[in-house]
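Why should sequence recovery work at all? Because a backbone constrains its sequence more than one might expect. Tight turns favour small or flexible residues, buried strands favour hydrophobic ones, and helices have their own preferences. The token representation captures these environments compactly. In the example below, the structure is given first.
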């Protein structure tokens, strides 16, 4: 009897494995994809157990094309897959909802297939695990109840034994109560399906080595197919990612701001601007279909983040040949931009953008501001703090004096609005 509280105490002090996962089990996973000319947000709703149906939602942004989409969720451990099909209707943003079966926790591939393009997205299904502390708490109170009540009831038959039982019961109760109080500070249990912990000193499999030293930078090579695309025709922009130390494909991209990569393509003069979310063709290989209306030099900036590593910006450039296609008039925007009269380099500047309608979150944020310098060597990206339901405030510190090209982006009425403007930044002495 005396051993029981001690056992409970030992259980309570037993070291739990450290949990390093930031993706909460059961939480929704949102992935932006630019595919077949459509800008989509794909949401995989969290599951609390397996096997279970997982709801997948597709939200499209205008202009929405008529587009059949096939979804396959495949366990990379067993190969077992579940399929669903959905057809986007032209002009209808959705959300389009399908139900897929998830057979087990762990690594999966979500394949998104359209007639022209396909994307294979790594997805990890996590299922909440029962915490050992919960077992201690429930077990402790249960044992305490039985011992105390039992001890009191049998008090007449054996005084010494019952007193001991009551004392043991009270102790069990105290242990359970203590664990209940401190459990929010104790490590969370590792959810089912979580990636195995990186072993320090062991070279990582696939790409780079994780562990204490962190992962090395990845190197990106940008190319187009065909090599010299002509203005007005569709071409593919490829981004090949390799690990800086091993030279092998880097395939450990973490979702950040709801995408594997945020790709900004601008013409050298800044007249053309696209913010895209490339599909994943395979390990370390991203791609996006594009069309440029005018010939010239184009710049590509991609924001990426590796698992257990920091974010980084990779850049490239490509050339578009031919003659200018008929100019496409940018859609009239009812937004207005308020820039302070004399922004100073190195000092925070707040730009206010008044949207033409009610704001909807996009990529997890109310608004995005992308800033480029004239030459294209600098690219910055900040998020908005909502001020009113139809206005955004962006605070940005321009690094050096000069003229900057800026694009504010937000979603209203399921349409991604892009508001271009320029900012001329001076030095302190000029003000
Ligand atoms: Cu993005």
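From this structural description, the recovered sequence reads:
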């Amino acid at each position: 009897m005396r051993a029981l509280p001690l056992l409970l105490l030992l259980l309570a002090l037993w070291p739990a494995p450290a949990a390093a996962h930031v993706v909460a089990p059961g939480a929704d996973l949102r992935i932006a994809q630019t595919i077949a000319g459509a800008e989509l947000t794909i949401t995989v709703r969290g599951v609390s157990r397996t096997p279970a149906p997982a709801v997948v939602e597709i939200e499209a942004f205008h202009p929405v094309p008529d587009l059949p989409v096939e979804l396959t969720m495949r366990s990379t451990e067993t190969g077992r897959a579940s399929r669903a099909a959905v057809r986007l209707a032209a002009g209808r943003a959705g959300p389009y909802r399908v139900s897929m079966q998830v057979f087990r926790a762990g690594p999966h591939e979500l394949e998104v297939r359209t007639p022209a393009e396909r994307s294979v997205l790594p997805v990890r299904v996590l299922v909440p695990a029962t915490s050992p502390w919960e077992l201690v708490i429930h077990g402790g109170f249960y044992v305490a109840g039985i011992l105390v009540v039992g001890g009191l009831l049998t008090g007449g038959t054996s005084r010494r034994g019952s007193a001991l039982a009551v004392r043991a019961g009270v102790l069990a109760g105290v242990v359970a109560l203590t664990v209940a109080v401190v459990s929010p500070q104790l490590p969370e249990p590792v959810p089912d399906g979580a990636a195995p912990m990186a072993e320090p000193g062991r070279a990582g499999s696939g790409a780079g080595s994780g562990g204490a030293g962190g992962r090395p930078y990845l190197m990106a090579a940008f190319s187009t197919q065909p090599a010299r695309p002509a203005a007005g025709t569709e071409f593919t922009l490829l981004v090949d990612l390799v690990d800086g130390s091993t030279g092998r494909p880097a395939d450990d991209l973490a979702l950040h701001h709801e995408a594997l990569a945020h790709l900004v393509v601008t013409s050298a003069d800044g007249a053309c601007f696209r913010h895209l979310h490339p599909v994943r063709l395979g390990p370390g290989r991203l791609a996006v279909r594009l069309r440029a209306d005018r010939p010239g030099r184009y710049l590509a900036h991609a924001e990426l983040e590796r698992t257990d590593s920091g974010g980084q910006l990779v850049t490239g450039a490509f050339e578009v040949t031919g003659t200018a296609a008929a100019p496409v008039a940018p859609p009239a925007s009812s937004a207005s931009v308020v820039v302070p009269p004399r922004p100073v380099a190195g000092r925070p500047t707040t730009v206010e953008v008044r949207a033409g309608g009610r704001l909807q979150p996009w990529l997890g944020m109310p608004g995005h501001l992308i800033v480029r310098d004239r030459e294209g060597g600098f690219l910055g990206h900040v998020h908005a703090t909502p001020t009113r339901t139809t206005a955004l405030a962006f605070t940005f510190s321009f690094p050096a004096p000069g003229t900057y090209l800026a694009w504010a982006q937000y979603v209203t009425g399921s349409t991604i609005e892009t508001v271009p403007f320029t900012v001329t930044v001076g030095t302190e002495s000029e003000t």
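A few observations help interpret the result. Residues 159-182 form the longest helix (24 residues).
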